[in-house]
Amino acid sequence: MTASHQKISASELYYLPSSAMHPANTRFHFSFANYYDPTRMSFGALRVLNDDDVTPHSGFGRHPHRDMEIVSYIVKGKLTHWDSVTKSDETIGRGHVQAISAGSGIWHSELNKQDDWCRFLQIWIMPPKTGGPVRYNHQQFELKDRENKLLHIVGNPKNKDSSPLYINSDVNLYVSELSDSRAIVEFELKPDRQAYTHDTSRCKVSKENCAEMLGIKLKVSYST
Question: Which residues make Cβ contacts (< 8 Å) with residue 213, sequence separation at least 6?
């Protein structure tokens, strides 16, 4: 029975600055679009993790997806979302999470219509099977629910009643916003499971698999 945990430093990520062809300053964790590294294709079911800082009055116009579970988390700013399921615009902000099961196919757009930058995490997770129904949902989480503790934001079909959002893949997504230098946020990794952590601020990884940020530690322990 094994479990694994991975975290990479910011210097290891591929950085693509904003341009006329790309509307955001983006750090790619894995191969994406024109960035290709055969050693960095995925981590378990996690196929894409892009940290996007979208320029004002710009964004990703309408485009299609299929056969992918897509989760977006708004770190700061506001993002206006449209999709071919709801056929309407909605603006989501800090702490907001949206979950898309692209299934047989969906069109969507993510635009920053504001005067300020919008930073969000774009997460793609490979589905257990292709095709199937398309589903879109979203939820805004309060700061108190994630401050100095882990908040379960996205679940899977096995535990979909324990989190407001769920996708078809056997994964769980958690978020924490750390403000107390004395805080210790712990997570137990079950046997035969994997964990991938991303810190939106500066951090270091110790030999004990602790992500350290301003004296705050995220401990990943392994059960046997």
Answer: 178, 199, 201, 202, 203, 204
